[in-house]
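pls design
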């Protein structure tokens, strides 16, 4: 049994003029061009669902590709360690947070951990840059002490350039005196 659809001359020409076809940008539509159409060839038979000219029967459809599997990046985990004013020494609370970050890194290994030191706005650019670097180094050292491989950790300081809480120059804001530990996620 053959199922087909007959298009009158005007309908076929309208579809062709509108650019309808399998890929109108890169390939011309198969079949005769509008200029080559005659009244006899204008009524075309199109097979719906099967191969052109072939019967439409169950199972006569092109095979479908299986769903594409994509790798998903692990969710980023972030831990924030806070510091006392002007210090890079780890408090007991800071060590507890670093212990939690190390445990998470060992439980679901990541390819890289980024440790970024920050400061408040009290002091010069140079002083705050050095302080942020010392804070990041202290956290990196504590992570390695807790079993995280050193080659998986990069540590840097950004001084007072990325404030958690925007303040004016010279403001002693405790939430800006921090180190952020970022494990996994996009780009790491």
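designed seq:
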């Amino acid at each position: 049994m053959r199922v087909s659809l007959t298009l009158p001359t005007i309908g076929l020409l309208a579809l062709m003029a509108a650019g309808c076809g399998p890929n109108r940008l890169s390939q011309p539509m198969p079949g005769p061009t509008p200029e080559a159409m005659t009244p006899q060839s204008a009524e075309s038979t199109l097979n719906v669902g099967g191969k052109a000219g072939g019967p439409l029967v169950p199972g006569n459809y092109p095979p479908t590709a299986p769903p594409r599997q994509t790798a998903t990046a692990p969710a980023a985990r972030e831990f924030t360690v806070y510091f006392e004013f002007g210090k890079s020494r780890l408090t007991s609370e800071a060590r507890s947070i670093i212990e939690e970050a190390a445990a998470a890194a060992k439980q679901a290994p990541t390819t890289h951990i980024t440790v970024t030191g920050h400061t408040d706005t009290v002091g010069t650019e140079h002083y705050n840059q050095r302080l942020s670097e010392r804070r990041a180094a202290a956290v990196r050292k504590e992570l390695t002490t807790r079993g995280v491989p050193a080659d998986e950790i990069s540590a840097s300081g950004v001084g007072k350039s990325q404030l958690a809480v925007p303040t004016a120059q010279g403001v002693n804001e405790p939430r800006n005196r921090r180190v952020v530990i970022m494990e996994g996620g996009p780009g790491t």
